Amino acid sequence: MTTEPPDDEKLLSIQWDNKAAPGLSGCMFPGVLTPLDCQIAGHPFNGEKQTIGMLICRRTGYVLKPAAKVVLGEREIAFYENLKNSHDPIAMEFKKFVPRYYGTTELRVFNKRTKFLMLRNTTKSMAEPCVIDIKIGFRTWDPLATPEKRRTEELKYAESKRTYGFCITGYQVYSVLSGRLRKYDRDYGKQLGVEGVVEALEDFLNIIPGKPVCRQLVSEILTYLYKIERLFNMQRKYCFYSSSLLIAYDAQHLRQHCPLKDDICTPFLVPKFDKEVISGSVPCIARGTHNLSGTNELTFSSRLKKSVSAPVSIPCEQILNQSRSRNSNMDRLCRSSPSQFTYSCTNDITKKDEENVSMENKCKWVKVKMIDFTHVFPGENNDLDRNYRDGIQMLIQLLSMIKKSDCMH
Question: How far does CA 151 lie from the centroid of its chain?
């Protein structure tokens, strides 16, 4: 029998009420903590299954991500610590694209000490956050994966990864027409085929049949993606496996400034409806046959039915050459040699850090962050991380096609 440290009783505790009504998680949270509403991937809190989800702290506004699996959790913490303390040019670039890290904390969850990473909330200040988790890479198993784990990973989201080099693990979206919230979890994402991925992206982007794409929204997302692509055309320090991009935007802003015709920004106001959450794996609406606007216009995915697999018809080398052409006039960051991660624990927030946060807050209604670093490894043989880079390029290509699709009406 082990004894807990004396200060263990001071830890905030999350308990499970095994007498909770059927269908409820049965989890009881301390007043300052609550489950993260916009978590759309990974495990939610479930007392019966003993799964631990993400939290948000009302006092600090930080998102708390569990490091429940010790080895994977420590690897992710090491990655954040390395970025935080490093002055290496590549690490400094990565800092621009990952959530701000504030160290770790511990909670008692289901009578077990659990470590959590404290991260900045990407959707902070968004009134109606639309969020999608896109796992990047044709390959999602890491170098330490067992043959069984490798087979399992190759079967997950197989069609999407094989075709596009990425997969959608879940998303939530507020409709610009009704204000209604819909959530789609990872079970839904696993069902998406080639066309389903395009339809899901259209749905997430609030594309209304018969109306042009909001070019401003797609352009904002693409601006982030081009910068990340540029970084991965240079960096040889890390290899990312099973890592995701978190794309978020505020539907309230989109509703008020959505361009309805020829890129002219016209207020698009609708009556306020109660928000309804649709959870679980929900079949995709056949938007080509009926829609909320009452028209029979086809969306991009329907019009492109015969060529929906076009992204894979373009060789990766051609995409790479196009990328090199785009980046030819940009300054190159220095190439750093592979190195092991350090485990230093300097978690102090500097004045400069806070100034950067303040600047970020003023920002925009669209944000893109790299997340999930439990399978990040040092680069090998001074090679580019082509697996991640090529997945980003395929996503850029698909979003660019969607952006241009309104000329096909």
Answer: 24
The whole-number average pLDDT for the span 282-291 is 35
Question: d(Cα 267, Cα 264) in Å, to the nearest integer?
Answer: 10
Give dist(CA 59, CA 56) in Å, integer.
9
Give the residue carrying structure tokens 């954040």. 80
Q: What CA–CA distance (Å, rounded) separates 322 from 51? A: 44
The 3-class secondary structure across 259-294, one letter per residue, is EEECCEECCCCCCCCCCCCCCCCCCCCCCCCCCCCC
Q: How many Å apart are CA 23 and CA 143, to the nearest integer?
A: 39
Q: How many Cα atoms are found within 13 Å in the side-chain-facing hemisphere of 353?
A: 14
| Residue 293 main-chain phi, psi, to 5 deg | -80, -5
Give all strands of the β-sheet with 243-250 in edge-to-edge order: 181-184, 166-174, 129-136, 243-250, 366-371
Residue 88 CA to residue 334 CA, distance in Å, equals: 9
pLDDT for the residue numbered 47: 66
Rounded Cα gap, residues 384 and 319, in angstroms: 15
Q: What average pLDDT is seen over the chain?
A: 76
Element of type H or E holding 171: strand 166-174
Residue 156: burial class (beta carbons within 10 Å; 0-12, 13-18, 19+): middle
